[in-house]
Design goal:
This protein is mainly alpha-helical. It contains 18 helices and six strands. It has a three-stranded antiparallel beta sheet, with no helix packed on it. Strands 4-5-6 form a three-stranded antiparallel beta sheet. Strand 1 and strand 2 form a beta hairpin. Helix 6 runs antiparallel to helix 7 and helix 9 packs across helix 18. It is globular, with a radius of gyration of 24 Å. It binds s-citryldethia Coenzyme A. The site of s-citryldethia Coenzyme A has 21 residues, from loops.
């Protein structure tokens, strides 16, 4: 096969550099720059990885120009319409849709890993009563490796699989316990007769004092939100999981690192930031003022839930979530939800504004999701926790793929040094 190459003229007086071109199934090709430092003594420079493919992956494909998102080749619109979160978790992890028997076995396995070690419950009492649930998530998930010494050989396929099962199964239990700790209510044990999301809602909202029946419409809406948040290529938190895993760290530590990265308002913390923003705007009459603030370079205010590093078109997930918003508000919560009306107004004005059009800023997955979570009775400080539960399926799939890559080596970027040149130490008395 003729090896495609490109020529890089990196200096006027020297020879040109021939770089191999790498081509995947779809999407942009890549220059292979692995030889550049060896051949030129120079680094490539790409802070924020705006134009860098950090790995080969077969899990998720995004086309930001066309607003396309596919998990293992299946369009997100079809999975949202016809699948379930656990089926999507199976697809992301094993690479193909399960047969009925495989899905039933997977659901049984996940259902039978939902409990956490009883002594972990004492871990929660160490947190201040009003600790942010994301803080407890990072701490508790990171501590899981202390309980599973039987499966920490990251090169043993069976250990990899059971760790992934445990993480997918236990995230809802750990999340609900974080919420109960915050509320000062007793923890509710998992109930294996319930679906994945109904079980989560039961652990969140049931109390020992009375029967609780998870609303099936709400459970279905939550399952759909989990599908939409399950994976998204090499986003910041997934790249964090991959980098942590590249050192050989155990999967629980890697997922804890991913949760920490997701927490930021520029990433998974945006759904909570959107609700704060909508409450700050308060009334549709203030929308123009806040749009102007978002456009003002001297104003740190940003339209949270808008813009994306990859999507320069409507985020396909946001389109689906906006419809779910309508359905949930019609069937579960009060239809005339003022925040939803405000969000629709904000979107309508922003999408007509030249600044947003020129910067190609559209609503992303976080713009409407918080409104649904709130309508389902989930408090704002749990919104990013919901994102973390869902994204665990993608994180463990990427962790597995990275570990399984025979060419994988520790991720260790270099830098463009701009610090002081060599200088001599000055004794204290002479400073
Ligand atoms: C997620 O990567 C993923 O896939 C993430 C995610 C996933 O599923 O894992 O999709 C989930 O994190 C979605 C994004 C959630 N974050 C937000 O909604 C926060 C608000 N959005 C931004 O801060 C921003 O758009 C980012 C962080 C999402 C993207 O940042 P980039 O690609 O680095 O773009 P940028 O910050 O350089 O902005 C480009 C321009 C700038 O203007 P110029 O200086 O070039 O003139 O657009 C402007 C920015 O000022 N801009 C905004 C804006 N987002 C970008 N201006 C106003 N409001 C905004 N929201």
């Amino acid at each position: 096969m003729n090896k495609k190459t490109v020529t890089l003229n990196y200096r006027s007086d020297g020879p040109a550099l021939e770089l191999p071109v790498l081509e995947g199934t779809e999407g942009p090709k890549a220059f292979d720059v692995t030889s550049v430092y060896r051949d030129t003594g120079m680094f490539t420079f790409d802070p924020g990885f705006m134009a860098t493919a950090s790995c080969r992956s077969a899990i998720t494909f995004i086309d930001g120009e066309k607003g396309i998102l596919r998990y293992r080749g299946y369009p997100i619109e079809q999975l949202a319409e016809q699948s379930t979160y656990l089926e999507v978790a199976y697809l992301l992890f094993y690479g193909d849709l399960p047969t009925a028997a495989q899905l039933e076995e997977f659901e049984y396995i996940i259902g039978h890993h939902t409990m956490i070690n009883e002594s972990l419950k004492m871990f929660y009492s160490g947190f201040r009563y009003n600790a942010h649930p994301m803080a407890t998530m990072v701490g508790v998930v990171g501590s899981l490796s202390a309980f599973y010494h039987d499966s920490l050989n990251i090169h043993d396929p069976r250990h990899q699989e059971i760790s992934a099962h445990r993480l997918i199964a236990k995230m809802p239990t750990i999340a609900a316990a974080s919420y109960k700790r915050h509320k000062g209510e007793p923890f509710i044990y998992p109930n294996n007769s319930l679906s994945y999301t109904a079980n989560f809602m039961n652990m969140m909202f049931a109390t020992p004092c009375e029967e609780f029946e998870p609303d099936p419409v709400a459970a279905k809406a939550l399952d759909l939100l989990f599908i939409l948040h399950a994976d998204h290529e090499q986003n910041a938190s997934t790249s964090t999981v991959r980098i942590a895993g590249s050192s050989g760290a155990n999967p629980f530590a890697c997922i804890a690192a991913g949760i920490a990265s997701l927490w930021g308002p520029a990433h998974g913390g945006a759904n909570e930031a959107v609700l704060n923003m909508l409450n700050q705007i308060g009334d549709p009459s203030n929308v123009d003022k806040y749009i102007a603030k978002a456009k003002d370079k001297d104003d740190p205010f940003r339209l949270m839930g808008f813009g994306h590093r990859v999507y320069k078109n409507y985020d396909p997930r946001a389109r689906i979530i906006r419809k779910v918003c309508h359905d949930v508000l019609e069937n579960v919560a009060d239809a005339n939800n003022p925040l939803f009306e405000l969000a629709l107004k904000l979107e309508e004005i922003a999408l007509k504004d030249d600044y947003f059009v020129e910067h190609r800023l559209y609503p992303n997955v976080d713009f409407y999701s918080g409104i649904i979570y709130q309508a389902l009775g989930i408090p704002m400080n749990m919104f990013t926790v919901m994102f973390a539960i869902a994204r665990t399926a993608g994180w463990v799939a990427h962790w597995m793929e990275m570990i399984g890559d025979s060419k994988q080596r520790i991720a260790r970027p270099r830098q463009l040094y701009e610090g002081p040149p060599e200088r001599q130490y000055v004794p204290l008395e002479k400073r």
